[in-house]
Each structure stands twice: as structure tokens, then as C-alpha cells.
Amino acid sequence: MKEYEVQNIKDTRSGFGDGLTELGKTNKDVVALCADLTGSLKMGDFQKAFPDRFFQVGIGEANMMGLAAGLTIGGKIPFTGTFANFSTGRVYDQIRQSIAYSDKNVKICASHAGLTLGEDGATHQILEDIGMMKMLPGMTVINPCDYNQTKAATIAIADHVGPVYLRFGRPKVPNFTPADQKFEIGKALKLIEGADVSIFATGHLVWKALEAAKVLAQDGISAEVINIHTIKPLDVAAVLASVKKTGCVVTAEEHMMNGGLGDAISQVLVRNNPAPLEMVAVNDTFGESGTPEELMTKYNIDTEDVIKAARKVVGRKK
Amino acid sequence: MTDIKSLEKLTTQVRRDIVRMVHAVNSGHPGGSLGCAEFFVALYGEVLKYNPKKFTIDGKGEDLFFLSNGHISPVWYSVLARSGYFDVAELKTFRKLNSRLQGHPTTHEGLPGIRVASGSLGQGLSVALGAALAKKLNNDDRLVYSLHGDGELQEGQIWEAAMYAAANKVDNIISTVDYNGRQIDGDVEDVLDLGDLDNKWTAFGWDVLHSDGNDMTDVLKTLAKAKEHTGKGKPIMIIMRTEMGHGVDYMMGSHSWHGVAPNDDQLEKALAQNEETLGDY
Asked: Which residues form the Transketolase N-terminal domain (chain B) (predicted)?
């Protein structure tokens, strides 16, 4: 089984910040907006290097989305930065009308997504954002798994014409994907080849899925682990090819069960090749204060939950 | 400068277009559209620099106009068509299936002249400001204009944008509020009083001008003055008094024609009060 080496422990938001600064050097049309969270979003380097292309909008996210839509009129490529909660739920109508329906080339970059925001609690721990964003026609939804991939994704979305929702997080997590990777929107990445169960994971759950696969291998279960960094457009061909081989599925995400990756994969399967499926996701509840690891455990989106789900779903195969 | 008489002639024709469009589909918003006819004709007939035959979303080197209160789309569609953006015959598709002239304006069907969707209120000022910032980044010295309803000023996003514009000295924008004092549920002062609108905008750091929106000479004069005020470190707001339903006597004096179409008899009356000057579509 393929093993992944942890190069270092880094936060995905730093991947965004570093990717943005790199983009600033190579693409003069890239501009950035932030709603009073420059430090949290790691946008300080971009702000320092390109002050004329950085817009501090204060605590006014609705205005920020409108400004970003307007900046595209004249050819700019705006990257907005705030927490995932304030990037989506707070400004859904602004994104819907001024960005998505108006087909504006805005990159909505959202940090502190999910439970791993931690101690700030449920007011800030959005678990519905992927669902909201993937329902919007024309919106691309990306949730990379580590620092390197978030950096690569940040750079890649500048070349994609159309609105993008880029979701990442707060905590420092294992950084294991190649530093020199080229990020391909919509292309699922097979991390481990397996035969008995397909584990489709996104974001922070990708590393958990790799850990789970090691344990499952000791049980004699050969798990295929696929990184679904792009939830929309979903790599349907990769999903179907893997499930055709393994015959059952686990989905794993730091998101609500309703509207998330599990939802998206279920739709593909029921319409093409129905197969037993278990979802590792937050089940219709709000989060609470705690450390990221405590919360992942309490809300059943930890390595152990992926393992349990895989054992269960393998047992459901006829 | 275009003579006032010909602009007024166009205004009368635009009013005919508006009532005919909403009558044809028994839906749409005639009140605010009629009240803003002079403003739109002044803008597109005299003030804006634009290229209707080679429309681009970016509009580099052109003045840009954003309609934030998108429900008054009939007046905009009429003026866009009569300014050469598309054939006036297309006005008959308004609000019908497969039309580019959606109930509320949108870029989605590719109608020339429109750069962002509007309808859900309160969003247009932020978008216009973004476009104004892009003009500055591009060293494009043309201006950005926007129009807003007075009821729309009840939306919080307007004031986020107002604060941002002044703090960042966005001085290449001329915004106008259609101060007709009416909204769907009644008079604005009864629904949610805007209070001292002049001092609100002044306190937010805007350069405030006033206009009589149903007097073509005054609209032109105010827009010219506003242009002189650009580039001085402050965004500009024109508080434009209008009469909702202006030009159709039975629609004036109340909020009741905000979003109601005239019936056949009412259409006849409205057309009798606005003679066909440039040919109906």
C-alpha cells in the first residue's frame, strides 16, 4: 500500500495566503479583498507586496461581494477573503445575484470552515457552505486537503473563468501532497489503490481517510482512497470507475451530511450504479466550542469513524 | 448639446413604451419607470459616453451605468433600445418566455447594455463602486453612474457601501436616488421613514446634490454639475425628487402603481396623455 510522508504540519489557510502572493507576482489582474480578517486569512503578504491591489473593506461582507463583482467589470480577478461562514451564509443573496447569476469571475476564498475552527464555537463553524455553494448554477466548489494543495488550487483558480468557492481551514494539519503539484479543477486524485471499498474524502478528511486505510489493511480490507478536492464539478467518471471495482462506498467530509460530498456522490451512484454507501459527516446538528481534535471525535468525523463506516459498508455488500 | 425639445420628445415616447410593455404582459413596474424617464433619457441622450454597437461588459473607455432598483427595467429597456443597444422591436418580448428582457435586468441572456443582474435590492451600489475601483486601477478616467430607489435605502448593504466609498475616496462615481417617497406597501415615511436623507448622506461623507427629476433642464443641469464635482475626493449622491407614475395622471399621487399594469382602458388613457413622437415599437 502506498504510504504518504508528512512533509510538515501546516494550515491550509497559509497555503491560500502564499498562493495568493505568488499569483500577485505573475498575474497583474489579480486583486484581493478582505473583511477585517487579513491575519486570519494570511493575506498580509499580498497586502504588503501589492497595496494598490488590496482592498480592506472592513466588517461588511455584503459590500465586499458586490465590490468584487464590480471589480470584474474592467477585467480584474478578485479574490475575497473571510471566514467560510461570512463567505457564504451571510452573503448568499449577494453571491447568487451579483456573482453567480451575473456570471462574474470572482474567487470566494473561505477560511475557518467546519468544526476545526474550534474554540469559537458554532456561530462560526459553518457546516452548510458546500451545500449552499454547489446549488448555485455555474459555481465551482473546491475543498483542498492540505497546505500544498490549497496553494496549488489558489493559483489554479485564477486561470479558470467563472465564479469559484475555495474552502479551507484554520488548524495545522499534515502536509503530504507534492509541493510542485499542478492543480486540475474537477480531477479526482486516487491516493491509494484498493479493491474492497472506495473512500471518497475531501478537505481535512483526506488525511483521516489515509490513516483509516492503514488500519483497514491490517483487517484485510483493501481501501481505495480518492481525494475529491473538487466537489463541483464532480469527477463522475472517477467515482463510477472506482465503485465499479470495489462495490461499496464511504464518503468523508467536514460538513453537514445534507448537501455535502456524500450527497453529491449518492446522486451519481443512484442514477448510474447503486451501491451501499456510508457517510462520515456531521449529522444535522450544530457544533460547539472545543479543540479541533475533540470536535472531530465528538461529532463522528474522525479516523475511527471512517474505519467503522468502511467495515460496515463492506459488510453490506451482497 | 442635444436640444431639450428632442430629449423631451424621446421621454414621451419612452413613457409610451413603458405603459405598452407592462400592459402587454399584465405585469411589471410602471410607477418608478415613468418617474425616472427624464433621468434615463438625460443620461443616455446627453451625459454618458458609450458604444452601443460594440457592447462589452468591461466597458473600458466608456461611462458605465448600473441600475440597482432593477424592477424599473421597462424604462431602462426602452432607453437602451432607443439608444441603439438593440432593436426597439425586441421591447415586445419583455417578460415573455425566452426573452433577453427579463422581468429584472440580467446579464444572463446577454442583453447589451447590462453589466450585472439587479432586482434583489441594495446590491447595486457595491457593484458600481467595484467597477469604479477597476476604472481607477485601469487608469480609465470615464465615470460610473448608479440609480437607486428610495425604499431601497432601507437595505443595510447600501450603507456598508456608502461608508466604504467615502472612506476610500471613490470620487469617480455619481449615484442618484429616485426620491419619489413611495414603496410597495405605501409612502416611504410610513413604511420606514428615511429621516433626514440629506444629512445621512452628508454624514456618510458624500457630496450631496439635488435635482427635480421630472424637469429635463434641471436633470441635465444637475448631472453636469455632478460631473464637475468628480475627482475631488468624495463620492457624489444626487437626491432626485420625482413623482411616481409621472406623465400618466391616474398613476400619480400614490404608491398604488408601483407594480401594477394598466388594463385596456387605462392604457388608452395613458397613451392619450403621451403622444407618439418617435414611432411605437
From this structure: 13-269
